[in-house]
Write a structure and sequence with these properties.
The complex is a heterodimer.
Chain A (H helix, E strand, L loop, with lengths): L1 H6 L2 E6 L2 E7 L5 H9 L19 E9 L5 E8 L3 E5 L6 H8 L6 E6 L2 E2 L5 H6 L4 E4 L3 H5 L6 H6 L7 E2 L3 E2 L1 H12 L18 H14 L4 E5 L7 H16 L3 E5 L3 H7 L2 E6 L2 E6 L6 H17 L11 H16 L3 H16 L6 H26 L7 H15 L4 H28 L4 H19 L9 H8 L1 E2 L2 E2 H16 L3 H11 L1 H6 L4 H27 L8 H13 L11 H20 L5 H27 L6
Parallel strand pairs in A: 5-12, 5-13, 8-11, 11-12
Antiparallel strand pairs in A: 1-2, 3-4, 3-6, 6-7, 9-10, 13-14, 15-16
Helix pairs in contact in A: 12-25, 13-24, 14-19, 14-22, 14-23, 14-24, 15-16, 15-17, 15-22, 15-23, 16-17, 16-22, 18-22, 20-22, 23-24, 23-25, 24-25
Chain B lengths: L1 H16 L1 H20 L6 H26 L7 H16 L6 H25 L4 H20 L4 E3 L2 H8 L1 E2 L2 E2 H19 L1 H11 L1 H6 L4 H27 L1 E3 L5 H12 L11 H21 L4 H26 L1
Antiparallel strand pairs in B: 1-4, 2-3
Helix pairs in contact in B: 1-2, 2-13, 3-8, 3-11, 3-12, 3-13, 4-5, 4-6, 4-11, 5-6, 5-11, 7-11, 8-9, 12-13, 12-14, 13-14
Classes of the chains: A alpha/beta, B mainly alpha.
Chain lengths: 641, 325
Amino acid sequence: MAEVRRVADRVTIFRGGSRVAVHALHEVQDEQIVEEMLGRKARRLYPERAESSERRRVVLGVQGLRDGRRLKGVDFDLREGEILGVGGLQGQGQSELLLTLYGRHASHGQIRLNGTDVDFHSPRQALRGDVGLALVPEDRQRDGLLLSKSIKDNVVLPVLRRVTSGPGIINRRDEERLAREALAPFDLSTSDLDQPAASLSGGNQQKLVIAKVLLTGARLLLMHDPTRGVDVGTKAEIFELMRILASRGYAILYYTTDLQELVNVADRVLVMNDGVIAATLVGDERTEEQVLHAILRHQHVASAASGAGRPRRSAGLAVIAQLWRATYGRSSRILPFALLAGLVALYAARQSGVLTVSELNLTMAAALPLILVGAGQAIAILSGGFDLSVGGIISLTTVIGATQFSGQGPGLIGWLVAVAVGGAVLGGFNGVVVTRLEMDPFIVTLAAWSIWGGAALLILKTSGGVVPHAMVAFGNGGFAGLQSAVWLAIALLVFWAWLSRTRTGVEITAVGSNRAAAALAGVNIHRRVAAAYALSGVFAVLAGLFLMTQTATGDPTAGNEFILTSIAAVVIGGTVLGGGRATMAGTVAAALTLTVIGNVVFTFSLPAGWQTAFAGALLILAVLANTLPGLIARRRGEDVR
Amino acid sequence: MRGVSRGANRVYRRLTRNSSIVLAFVLAFVMFVGTSLAASGFASGSNIRYLLVAATFIGVVGLGQTFVVLGGGVDLSIPYTLTAVALLTSYWSKGQDAGLWWMIPVALALAALIGVANGIGVALLGVSPIIMTLGMNVIVEGGLLAYLNGQEVGTAPPFLNAVTQGSVGPVPIPVLIWLGLAAVATVVLTTMTYGRRLYAVGTNRTVAELSGIRSSTVLLAPYVVSALTAGVAGLLLTGYTGQAYLGMGDPYLFASVAAVAVGGASLLGGSGHYIGTIGGALVLTVLAGLLPVLNVSLGWVDIIYGGMILITVFLASVRKGRDET
């Protein structure tokens, strides 16, 4: 309300979807506006506060609480029957404090509940402790409710055990009764508990969250902006409810970004700044001005003492995570090359004649199909998706080639151009469906894999057909001592160097790294994503064509093995799944690695299956190397969620 | 009177809310009747039994896939998990019954281990389900090739033949096994706390965790279920066709995903029912059963699977978009 007055000149009031009144702001009182918003006389927004709770029992004692990042030693006591407000500028560690107490983030320091030290590792433990702790999360739609599930499902979710009998069977009647009991105090103006939570208004959704939290039986409530985005009437109800709960002995830690509500609702106000409690305000000090003063005073003191440095204690896991980031993070670019060099060294040690041009020619010819699919896959992944359909497209290419291509010269070139364009169309189709229809790339390209693979089977039931002699000759021919495969790999790297400097390349990268930002910057998302998938389709066709020159046959299942290996080559090569960064040299090195593994396995006279198994294991390891540090960081609370 | 109308109301609401499930069964039925009219013999008892057994294989692997998809994942390791159980059992038994009592449990236990590995990768270590299970599929394939050392075909032991080719009254035994598994799955998903938690985690993992649910355990279990149902399907398939061979599981990658999608489950997790997957398995089977009638190539099966996935997921997203506006 205060904000409206600061900013606006006139105010228009809507209720139930229609316009109720328009006022010049200087002509109306707040009370009248509120009345018109509600359509009835408003109750007072803020309920009476209780008398001092100084002598009450301490329920929650926190000392020296740190989370390794935002929280830098938080100390406070929360008493039975108290609403303890937490305020300050946003992002000073308030939400981390709530999530840490709730067991969502790991922490150091002392947390005492009813005089006993506790160390919760999950919300589950926090909820189930002797004094239950429960959280009303910041964003009810994101973190509080299963919007598509029913009201009843949402309310009973944390207490399913209370409505089950026997081996975990839910008793529907108990469930219904419990849900109705929990919702009774909230006059949720609906009797149909089977409606989805999404159908409720914002205020009623918030009441639903609070009902769910209260039903857990928790006596200590952590409330994060419980009145954000709800109507004035519901605000008053929520504040009144908080007061009633406090009078029944509940303890409430109440963080709000609204200073006015903070100072009017809380019994005491903690002002947080830079990860510590800067001040505790009681009695008449509870004003918005005092909160701001406390912040400024603390900032002043902190800047004077900044030479002291930030205290930070690292757990063993943290050290490992840091080391990992320092070494792997930097070396991920050279990792595929190191891997390849190591393998080649091992191979050379076991077999003579490895480090020769002819061996290079052989290896490159064997690896080129994978290198080419990998190149396309890298572009699809760069754009933020990925492409399983390459398998189908490769198979289709080889069978079309082996049955339709004829002769040589212009006719053959016409065919080659035609299938390349076909690849662009099939790939582009994926891209269009993915962006225009907003379907998951996994589903779309899986379906496309199945369709194009099936089409290949229509043309040839088993491998066969004839590959034009000119193609075989080209694939096995060469120039200046190097086979065409080597030249094609070089051409690919040149192409990539060029593409990544073009507008198309830059914009595909932008879309993959941050779609929303790219759209705001004027990038045509649809066109760029379609282009990325089209390129992936073209490269799959090229891979199929080169594969034909090596196998001299068409195979309706030839492409299937390339789906996993192409993703593996890209990921091992150092490209990040999720988009925004790709390396072609790394992809080439990784594809070579996956090929050389086969040779090395052969020198150990291991059965052929090991090569396949190694590729799979290497892929999973490479992905883990990318995801694990983030996972550890999240467990340690370095991420807000 | 009021009680009756309220009950009818509830039934009506259930039907509309699960319209895609109803649609799957209607579609299967209409296609079946249509084909029967066009081709005599399609509706014969023996052909119906054949179709039901064929649907059983898809339905059983689809069971595990349904659990995985409900949790927001996908299992692409089904083909070689299925093949591994089938081939190992026939390889160890050399086509004889002796020792089957330990071979089948051991093979299924190995399948469960594959599932546990998938589950650990996805639920605990945060690897994308597609990568994890696709990688696992290849690892199992490679391991199997290496272990069998070229023995790529095995004969089914007589016991498996007898069980899978027998019938109780007119109903083939595999179909009975399917019905039993379907009953268990439906009970778990609709009436048990585990089912409720799985839906919750699949809908929104953060909300589920903040509500005190151990999401990692909840998400791990479906991969084990999926590996086990794939293994069971492998045994049934071996017995029914008389042999196990490398690549026998390949069609079930698309088939399981397509059955789940046609059955109306969201491939993004959190909504759907196994009953829908049953309908999906029937649709796919009748469609595939049409093909010999129409006298066309097997490639159409893959094309149909892919097309069904694309169309149903597209229709679902359209419907969702309409609901939200």
